[in-house]
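Please decode residue identities from the backbone states below.
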């Protein structure tokens, strides 16, 4: 289950795990949950359990078949580090990523404590970008957990941004994505919050990516900030030939 995507900061998605359990306010209007309901209604067999955590063993090795380099968002429909995913499954997903250095993988989690716990047991090759979701100041501790891992490229997804994020600890962080919530019931994002994060990124020389303003109709609000788009991304770190699998 690899799919081209309209997500602005990646090229495609790969979902060896689908389904999740909500753990914080950023999960309240989960887009993946809404999509899972639609896919089940359409008869998609991988969503028979709708949004219950489900492991797809047959998809773990899928990227090994891709020759052309791709940028891949891993588990856009789930969270790889949720408790329902066993360590050995996580390790196999990471082994596939490490064995395919031509691709860049973007992994995002809200389970930063488990990420930190398992970090020593995972192969952190340069093509594996690790991120945490930070929707407001209540979950800023996730950044410290991420910073303490052995990931070589680290990023924050401040989406949906539902509160100000002042004094972000950006040392060791390579990239910050900011976006407003979209869809029915979307909570508003204040422009001042976005500008504050951009200033902090500029001060720490961190790549800043503005994804969208959000709202019920995100296609109407767009993604312009200061009359332009912000699409910065980290520079890809190459794997030395001597270390490549």
């Amino acid at each position: 289950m690899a799919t081209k995507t309209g997500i602005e900061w990646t090229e495609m998605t790969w979902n060896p795990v689908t389904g999740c359990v909500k753990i914080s306010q950023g999960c309240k209007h989960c887009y993946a949950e809404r999509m899972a309901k639609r896919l089940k209604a359409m008869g998609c067999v991988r969503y028979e359990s709708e949004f219950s955590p489900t492991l797809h063993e047959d998809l773990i090795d899928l990227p090994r078949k891709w020759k052309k380099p791709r940028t891949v968002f891993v588990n856009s429909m789930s969270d790889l580090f949720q408790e329902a995913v066993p360590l050995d499954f996580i390790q196999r997903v990471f082994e596939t990523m490490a064995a395919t250095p031509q691709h860049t993988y973007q992994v995002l989690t809200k389970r930063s404590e488990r990420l930190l716990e398992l970090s020593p047991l995972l192969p952190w090759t340069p093509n594996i970008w690790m991120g945490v979701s930070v929707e407001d100041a209540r979950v800023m501790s996730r950044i410290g957990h991420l910073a303490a891992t052995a990931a070589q490229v680290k990023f924050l997804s401040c989406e949906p941004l539902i509160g100000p994020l002042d004094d972000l600890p950006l040392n060791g962080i390579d990239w910050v994505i900011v976006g407003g919530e979209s869809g029915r019931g979307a909570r508003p994002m204040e422009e001042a919050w976005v500008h504050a994060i951009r200033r902090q990124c500029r001060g720490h020389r961190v790549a800043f990516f503005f994804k969208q303003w959000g709202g019920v109709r995100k296609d109407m609000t767009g993604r312009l900030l200061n009359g332009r788009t912000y699409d910065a991304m980290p520079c890809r770190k190459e794997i030395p030939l001597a270390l490549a699998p």
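Observation: The beta strands are 2-4, 12-14, 17-18, 54-55, 71-74, 104-109, 128-133, 153-158, 175-179, 207-212.
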